[in-house]
Amino acid sequence: PPQLQVDAGDDLPYVPGLTLQVAATGGTGTYSYLWSPTQYLDDPTSPTPMVQGLMSTTLFTVQVTDAVMGCTLTDEVLVDYNIGMSELGSGAIAVYPNPSDGLVRIQGPVAVQRVQLRAPNGALAIEHSGAALHDLVMDVSSLPAGVYFMTIEFIDGRSHTHKLCATSVH
Q1: Which of 4, 129, 140 is nearest to 75 (CA)?
Q2: Are 95 and 150 in contact (CB under 8 A)?
Q3: Per-residue pLDDT tens for 34-46?
Q4: Would you give the end-to-end CA distance of the chain in angstroms?
Q5: Which of 78, 74, 117, 75 has the alpha carbon at shortest distance from 95?
Q6: How far is residue 158's CA from residue 45's CA, in Å, rounded to a whole number?
Q7: pLDDT one-digit tens code per residue, 59-81
Q8: Are 61 and 74 in contact (CB under 8 A)?
Q9: pLDDT tens digit string along 117-126?
């Protein structure tokens, strides 16, 4: 068979919902994949894992193995958190990862003053208030799986409601 070739693509700016993609050619065409570091990926054994929970610039490595021949090649892609998040712009609101079973990051155009997370029946599930931050992290790991409505209030008086899907790890 032709020689195995692996390409993880060019370096990328980080944006919420970013998906990595590796192209493997040659060999027998039956491949297995393993990305690292695994903690920031929804499925590190996929050729197209989604990046989640990234908090800094990270170098991802993918190992592709030809399942029949046993040959292995690796490639790398740098995901630049700083460039990506600065490209969100001054008016953008980011809530990610979504869905989440743990930490959710909330970023707004101005500092966030209060966040309320409500169940579909209107019951308050989580509330965060206190120090106003441009970059807020909330823990939703204690919530049962379901859809919640997140109301984000900013220090300038504006508010925004966003759907959040919680996936339980219990």
Answers
A1: 4
A2: yes
A3: 999 999 999 999 9
A4: 46
A5: 117
A6: 41
A7: 999 999 999 989 999 999 999 87
A8: yes
A9: 999 898 999 9
Length of the chain: 170
Task: Tell me the CA distances in angstroms from 46 to 8, 31, 51, 70, 165, one per residue in order.
Answer: 12, 10, 12, 18, 22
- Measure the CA–CA gap between 96 and 80, rounded to whole angstroms: 16
If phi > 0 it is left, if psi is from -120 to 50 it is alpha, else beta; for residue 113 that is alpha
SS (H, E, C) 15-78: CCCCECCCEEECCCCCEEEEEECHHHECCCCCCCCEECCCCCCEEEEEEEEECCCCCEEEEEEE
> Which helix (H) or strand (E) covers residue 129, if one does?
strand 124-139
The model's pTM = 0.55
Cis amide linkage into residue 99, ω under 30° from 0: yes
Determine phi and psi for 86, rounding to 5 degrees.
Answer: -70, -25
Looking at the DSSP bridge assignments, the partners of residue 114 are: 129, 153
By CB atoms closer than 10 A (0-12, 13-18, 19+), residue 166 is buried
Burial category of 51 from C-beta neighbours within 10 Å (exposed 0-12, middle 13-18, buried 19 and up): buried
DSSP reduced 3-state for 86? helix
